[in-house]
Design brief:
It is a single chain. With 128 residues, the chain is mainly α. Helices cover 68% and strands 0% of the residues. The chain has one domain. The chain is built from 4 helices and no strands.
């Protein structure tokens, strides 16, 4: 997918998330995961670390060497995305305590991911 499509989808999901309440923790976490993934792909594409045909779906599904390559450029962003992913089994598919707080954390992480991704264009690219 082209970087501009990732950005447009991430921004659309973020606008939708603004309509939700604290009682919508499951979709807040899911939405943060989806938007964060689009932002991660956007950042990696504009820095030419990954191609338009090479998209992250979940950090946990990346081949280790690919994730290492991505982490050379966007370690913190990918760690934040991974933290959102770790919230999903407990609060979206599970019934752990603290789901509202987990959703707030996911949204906070998404804000940081989005901010970094927006800054990514024009930054140093991975040589190779």
């Amino acid at each position: 997918m082209k970087p501009e499509h990732h950005r447009a989808r991430a921004e659309r999901i973020e606008r939708s998330l603004e309509l939700l309440t604290d009682n919508d923790w499951e979709i807040r976490i899911e939405g943060a995961m989806l938007a964060g993934t689009h932002w991660a792909n956007y950042a990696l594409h504009v820095q030419e670390v990954s191609t338009d045909t090479e998209d992250i779906v979940h950090t946990s599904m990346c081949v280790v060497n690919t994730l290492r390559k991505y982490s050379l450029v966007e370690r913190e962003l990918l760690q934040q995305l991974d933290e959102i992913e770790e919230l999903r089994p407990l609060h979206v598919r599970g019934d752990a305590q603290g789901s509202r707080e987990a959703a707030a954390r996911a949204l906070s992480l998404l804000a940081a991911i989005g901010q970094r991704a927006r800054q990514a264009q024009g930054t140093t690219r991975l040589e190779g």
